[in-house]
Amino acid sequence: MVGEDLYIYPNPVNQILYIHLDKMDNTPTEVLVYNTLGALMLNKKELIKGHQVSVNMFKLPPGIYFVKVISGKTNKTVKIVKR
Protein backbone atom coordinates (compact mmCIF):
# COMPACT_ATOMS: atom_id res chain seq x y z
CA MET A 1 0.00 0.00 0.00
CA VAL A 2 1.28 3.45 -0.86
CA GLY A 3 -1.45 5.95 -0.15
CA GLU A 4 -5.21 6.25 0.16
CA ASP A 5 -5.73 6.05 -3.60
CA LEU A 6 -2.68 4.06 -4.78
CA TYR A 7 -1.89 0.41 -3.98
CA ILE A 8 1.11 -1.46 -5.42
CA TYR A 9 1.33 -5.18 -4.70
CA PRO A 10 2.79 -7.70 -4.13
CA ASN A 11 6.04 -6.45 -2.69
CA PRO A 12 8.30 -8.36 -3.04
CA VAL A 13 7.16 -9.35 -6.54
CA ASN A 14 8.04 -12.47 -8.52
CA GLN A 15 6.44 -11.81 -11.90
CA ILE A 16 3.34 -9.57 -12.10
CA LEU A 17 3.13 -6.27 -10.22
CA TYR A 18 -0.36 -4.80 -9.76
CA ILE A 19 -1.02 -1.10 -9.48
CA HIS A 20 -4.47 -0.17 -8.24
CA LEU A 21 -5.67 3.43 -8.42
CA ASP A 22 -8.99 3.86 -6.58
CA LYS A 23 -10.23 7.07 -8.16
CA MET A 24 -8.73 6.65 -11.62
CA ASP A 25 -10.69 4.88 -14.33
CA ASN A 26 -10.31 5.54 -18.05
CA THR A 27 -7.29 7.69 -17.19
CA PRO A 28 -4.05 7.61 -19.21
CA THR A 29 -1.39 6.13 -16.94
CA GLU A 30 2.37 5.77 -17.26
CA VAL A 31 4.39 3.30 -15.20
CA LEU A 32 8.18 3.68 -15.20
CA VAL A 33 10.48 1.14 -13.55
CA TYR A 34 14.04 2.21 -12.70
CA ASN A 35 16.91 0.19 -11.25
CA THR A 36 19.00 1.49 -8.34
CA LEU A 37 21.42 3.18 -10.77
CA GLY A 38 18.56 5.22 -12.25
CA ALA A 39 18.41 3.36 -15.56
CA LEU A 40 14.93 3.02 -17.04
CA MET A 41 14.12 -0.71 -17.21
CA LEU A 42 10.42 -0.63 -18.17
CA ASN A 43 8.02 1.97 -19.51
CA LYS A 44 4.33 1.14 -19.82
CA LYS A 45 1.63 3.53 -20.99
CA GLU A 46 -2.02 2.54 -21.05
CA LEU A 47 -5.54 3.63 -20.26
CA ILE A 48 -6.64 2.34 -16.85
CA LYS A 49 -9.57 -0.07 -17.03
CA GLY A 50 -11.20 -1.19 -13.80
CA HIS A 51 -8.86 0.96 -11.69
CA GLN A 52 -5.91 -1.43 -12.21
CA VAL A 53 -2.75 -1.80 -14.29
CA SER A 54 -0.51 -4.87 -14.31
CA VAL A 55 3.21 -4.81 -15.09
CA ASN A 56 5.09 -7.96 -16.10
CA MET A 57 8.43 -7.89 -14.26
CA PHE A 58 9.43 -11.45 -15.23
CA LYS A 59 12.34 -10.44 -17.49
CA LEU A 60 13.93 -8.16 -14.89
CA PRO A 61 16.72 -9.65 -12.76
CA PRO A 62 16.17 -9.90 -8.99
CA GLY A 63 16.93 -6.70 -7.12
CA ILE A 64 15.57 -3.39 -5.91
CA TYR A 65 13.59 -1.17 -8.27
CA PHE A 66 11.74 2.13 -8.12
CA VAL A 67 8.28 2.20 -9.67
CA LYS A 68 7.00 5.63 -10.70
CA VAL A 69 3.29 5.96 -11.40
CA ILE A 70 1.95 9.00 -13.27
CA SER A 71 -1.82 9.18 -13.66
CA GLY A 72 -3.96 12.28 -13.58
CA LYS A 73 -2.75 14.27 -10.57
CA THR A 74 -1.00 11.23 -9.08
CA ASN A 75 2.78 11.18 -9.39
CA LYS A 76 4.37 8.77 -6.90
CA THR A 77 7.51 6.65 -6.73
CA VAL A 78 7.68 3.45 -4.69
CA LYS A 79 10.58 1.11 -3.89
CA ILE A 80 9.90 -2.56 -4.65
CA VAL A 81 11.89 -5.78 -4.46
CA LYS A 82 11.95 -8.24 -7.37
CA ARG A 83 12.72 -11.85 -6.41
List the helices and strands and how they pair.
Blueprint: E1 6-9, E2 16-21, E3 28-35, E4 40-47, E5 52-56, E6 63-71, E7 74-82
Could you explain the architecture of this structure?
- By secondary structure, this protein is mainly β.
- The protein has a single domain, classed as Immunoglobulin-like (Sandwich), CATH 2.60.40.
- It contains no helices and 7 strands.
- Strands 4-3-6-7 form a 4-stranded antiparallel β-sheet, with no helix packed on it.
- The chain is globular.
CA(first)-CA(last) distance: 19 Å
Residue-averaged pLDDT:
90
Beta strand count: 7
Question: Considering DSSP H and I runs of 4 or more, what fraction of the residues is helical?
Answer: under 10%
- Counting helices, strands and paired strands, the structural category is mainly beta
Query: Which CATH architecture?
Result: Sandwich
Please list the strands of the largest sheet in the order they lie side by side: 4-3-6-7
